[in-house]
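#help-structures
NK: newbie question, is this the right format to request a structure? protein is Putative lipoprotein
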Amino acid sequence: MRSARFALYSLLPLFAACQVWTPKPTVVNLPTRVQGELSRQGDALILRPCQENRRFGIEDSADTGLAREARELFAGGADSLFVDVRGSYGGSRSSGTDGALQVDTLYRIQNEGHACDDPNFKRTIVQAGGNEPGWSVMINAQGLLLERPGQKALVVPYVVESVPGGSSSYSSEANGQKLELWVAPARCVNSMSGAVSTLSAELRLNGQVLRGCAYPGGASSD
């Protein structure tokens, strides 16, 4: 009996160790939307996110065309560009960087206009605009804002309808105006600034059709 008690006591430390051991948590890098300054380091693209000093090498894991679009804009003489993408942090760390950003979606890339300093971005669902004649539409949860040079800004409620394929319609009939904004997935280049986005836009205003480009804002579900 004594030997049996000794064997039981000798196993107690093993049982205690089993009770306090916990598995190491698995780190999962989920895709996130990132905006920032894009520059070149040799043949590599480097992204510095807005309001950060960290720098990340770009890995275009989904072949979004980011490298091609950046190359064309850099060819115009720009030292840096603004880029709006979605991706996951991870991958190899190259010299002079804090890691890598594996990009799976390109929303827009530009060398002028609102960038990190856009005060409306977080509240915006869709931002659209065009040239000749100039027009701009901003949509958020409160309503639709239409702005045109030389005319009073128009703020109206809207109804949204999404259709298969990723297109959406934002329509309104208020204040004596009938308007509808259609946005659809398509590479779109601003005819004046050269900015590239991945949504085309068509504004139908009282029978007039105006075309331009668009991108999803920070309040978008995309």
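mod (FA): yep, format's fine, and the tokens are attached above. The helical segments are 2-20, 66-74.
NK: thank you!
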